[in-house]
Amino acid sequence: MALTGINAYRTGNLKQDIANADPHKLTLMLMQGALDRIAYAKGAMERREFEQKSQLISRVSAILMNLRDTLDLELGGETAENMYALYDYMLDRLNEAHMKNSLKLLDEVTNLLTPIRDAWVQIPEQAKQEAYEAQRQKREAV
């Protein structure tokens, strides 16, 4: 019974965090959410809770597809293209981990995504503002 209240509180806080987040923070939240769900999927896999494992891996896949599909390949150039390919690779590894029940493959995806998340945290505020301005100008030009 108490968990229901805690979960409702968490959900409310998450909705508030999303509503108040800038694009940088939203991306960070997505990356962290993917990493958290991979960890939960590993636990489900170890416990042989295959339905839960499947749901969690599906959520991670959806997050990675969102991150991949929101890349601006035109503005980001080669870096964005490389990130797109890396997200595709991670999606392939997730699918293989799901089919083979492989903790090792889930660890591989974690080891690929963690440095991206860590680098994202280190982006200076000025660089974030410049990126937002470039995006705004691009939208206005269309």
From TrEMBL:
**Stated family:** Belongs to the FliS family.
Positions of transmembrane segments: none
Q: Which GO terms describe its cellular component?
A: cytosol
Stored Pfam families: FliS
What's a single GO BP term from this record? Answer: bacterial-type flagellum-dependent cell motility
**Where does this protein reside within or beyond the cell?**
Cytoplasm, Cytosol
Which named protein is this? Answer: Flagellar secretion chaperone FliS
Q: What are the UniProt keywords, alphabetically?
A: Bacterial flagellum biogenesis, Cell projection, Chaperone, Cilium, Cytoplasm, Flagellum
**Gene3D superfamilies with a match to the protein in the record:** Flagellar protein FliS
